[in-house]
Amino acid sequence: MESVHLGRFCGQTVSPQQLAEIVEIIETFPKLSRTELANTVCEIFSWKRPTGKLKGVECRQFLEHLDGKGTIKLPACRTQYAKKGAAKVQRTEKADIQPTISIKLKELLPIRLTRVDNQEQRQLWYEYVDRYHYLGYQLPFGAQLRYFIKSGSISEILGCFQFSSPAWKMASRDRWIGWSEAKRKVNLQKLINNSRFLILPWVKIKNLASMALSLAVKRVPDDWQSCYGYRPVLMETLVDRKRFKGTCYKAANWIHVGRTTGRGRMDRDRSREGVAVKEIYVSPLSSRFRQELAGC
140 preceded by cis ω (within 30°)? Predict the structure, then answer.
């Protein structure tokens, strides 16, 4: 196998000795699935969340990254995902275009965010996003939470949210926060990324999007802490300026802090030049977010 610089896994340097152990695990247990291998590696190296849960999702993606570079050789993928990040989502009648909903927002109140937490809900969420979001559905990097946006008055799904791990580096965001390189590496997990936001195309409700964002800022930090054992203090998102103006984020009092450089959000080695430039918006989740992130 080729010798490569492994970098870091969730802020931890991966040593050559750890790589050798990973290779040994794969060779010793050739019948384990990729998920089982990831969980095994997490157990051996104590790669766990503050709650004690294994960082299995992140570890599997890390192993697949190494596999893609030829550093290790994983068993064939047994899941529905044919390649890293790509998803084959089954199309059903449940997610077909519905009659237009065009009424005043007050007639839909209360608006609620409903956590997606079982297989049936996940499949529907995947299908809505894959069919109607311009980026489609992709397996997100690291931790994630998903929601349906619903109306309490008409029992209809109006849209979808996904929150996931933040971008590794964004110069404009990092300057705005004011943290050092060392602080960024330590405190990056205190950021979360609004990586998908979809109002379904047949829903034509003025101010619904900004209200949903305001609800998310209040709801998601509690859920994230409950699920992952720590509370985020800043939320971020990227808006494709060729497609959207960021109006709903501005209306929900998110702060515009600059633009990306046209690279992928997890692109650490400048291998994805040419990605669309996007506007960066953030929403503080704590009045002390700078003290918690940058120590100032």
Answer: no
Whole-number pLDDT of residue 75: 87
Please give the single-letter amino acid code of residue 242. Answer: K
pLDDT at position 87 is 53
Backbone angles phi, psi at 141, to 5 degrees: -80, 130
| pTM of the model as a whole | 0.73
Show the low-confidence residues of the chain (pLDDT under 70). 1-7, 11, 78-88, 139-142, 263-275, 296
In CATH, which of 1.20.1740.10, 3.40.630.30, 3.40.640.10, 2.30.110.10 is domain 93-294? 3.40.630.30
What is the Cα–Cα distance from 111 to 113, expressed in whole angstroms?
7
Contacts for 65-74: CB closer than 8 Å, 24+ residues apart: 66/6, 66/19, 66/22, 69/2, 69/4, 70/1, 70/2, 71/1, 71/2, 71/4, 71/6, 71/19, 72/1, 72/19, 72/22, 72/23, 72/26, 73/1, 73/26, 74/26, 74/34, 74/37
What is the reported pLDDT for 82? 42
Question: What is the reported pLDDT for 282?
Answer: 98
- Tokens 């199309």 — which residue? 91
The first and second tokens of residue 274, run together, are: 């040419």
User: What integer pLDDT is reported at residue 142 of this predicted model?
Assistant: 65
Beta strands in the chain (DSSP E): 8-9, 12-13, 111-115, 144-151, 157-164, 191-199, 234-240, 255-259, 278-284
Tokens 């290779």 -> residue:
23
Instruction: Judge whether 268 and 7 are in contact, CB under 8 Å.
Output: yes
Write down the domain spans for the chain.
8-68, 93-294
**Short-list 166, 173, 142, 156, CA closest to 294:** 173
Strand partners, 280: 238, 258
Which DSSP state fits 76? P
